[in-house]
Amino acid sequence: MKRILYLLLFVFACGLTATAQKVKPVEYGGSVNLIREIDQNTIVLRTLGYGKKEAYAREDAEVRVIRAVLYVGFEGHSKLISETESAFEAKHGDFLNTFWEQKRYKDFITGIVSVGSLEKVKGQKVKSMPFDVTVNVKAFRQYLIQNKVGGGLGFR
User: Fold this and answer.
1) Which of 40, 44, 90, 138 is at 20 to 30 A from 17, Cα to Cα?
2) What is the structure's pLDDT at 26?
3) In the predicted model, what is the mean pLDDT of residues 91-119?
4) Are 153 and 141 in contact (CB under 8 A)?
5) Is 150 helix (H, G, I), strand (E, B) or coil?
6) DSSP assignment string, 39-83
7) Cβ(59)–Cβ(49) below 8 Å
C-alpha cells in the first residue's frame, strides 16, 4: 500500500514539473527593440511575449527583455555581460538559477504595458502579445556588480 502511495506521489510530482512554464523563453522568433530612454537609468523596450494565456505571454516578455539587456544590448547601449550567454551560464549557474527561479528579474522591471491583443501565431500552438517593458538598468547593473557577476559594461 505504501509503495502505491509513493508511486502516485512521484507521478503527481512529475506531472506538476512537466506542466510548469519554463523560465528560458522558447525561440518563436521576435526581437526586443529599444523604444525610448526615460532617463539615464531607465529604458522602455518592446517585445512579443508568447504563451497560451496573457499572464504567460507577459512573463515571457519580461524574461526576453531581461535576457536582451544582459546578453545582447541595443543600438547605443552595450550588453551588461561581456561573456557569451553559454559561458556566463556555465560560470554563474547557481546565481542564475536563483535569479530566474525566485523571479528576481522582476525587481528591475518598473512597468509593463500591453500594446496589442493576444493573437494566435500562425502554424504554432501558442499565442503572442506585444508589450512595452520599462527596465531600471542602473539598479540591474548595480545588482550584478554587488553579486560579483558582471554589470561593469554598457548602459551608462
Assistant:
1) 90
2) 53
3) 94
4) no
5) coil
6) SSSEEEEEEEEEESSHHHHHHHHHHHHHHHHHHT-BTTB--S--S
7) yes
Please count the other Cβ atoms lying within 10 Å of the Cβ belonging to residue 36: 11
Contact residues for 43 (Cβ-Cβ < 8 A; gap 6+): 34, 35, 36, 37, 74, 77, 134, 135, 137, 155
Express each pLDDT in 18-43 by its tens digit: 444 444 555 656 689 999 999 888 99
CB 129 within 8 A of CB 61: yes
pTM reported for the whole predicted model: 0.78
At which residue does the C-alpha cell 525610448 appear? 36
Q: Which three cell numbers stand for residue 101?
A: 527561479
E-assigned strand segments in the chain: 32-37, 42-51, 109-114, 119-120, 127-136
Using CA of residue 116, residue 108, residue 99, residue 10, what is the dihedral sign? negative
Count, residues in the chain = 156
